[in-house]
Amino acid sequence: MEGSSKYLVKSDILMPTFGAYFPTGNDSLILSHFPYLRNMILKASQIHKSYGQLPILRGVDLSVEKGEIVSIVGASGAGKSTLLHIIGTLDKPDRGRLVINNVDIGELSQKKISLFRNEHIGFVFQFHHLLPEFTALENVCIPAFIRGQGRKQAEMRGMELLDRLGVKHRAEHKPSEMSGGEQQRVSVARALMNSPALLLADEPSGNLDSENAASLHQLFFELRESLKQTFIIVTHNEELASISDRTVHMRDGQIL
Ligand SMILES: Nc1ncnc2c1ncn2[C@@H]1O[C@H](COP(=O)(O)OP(=O)(O)OP(=O)(O)O)[C@@H](O)[C@H]1O
Ligand SMILES: [Mg+2]
Question: ABC transporter domain: which residues (predicted)?
Answer without folding.
Answer: 42-256
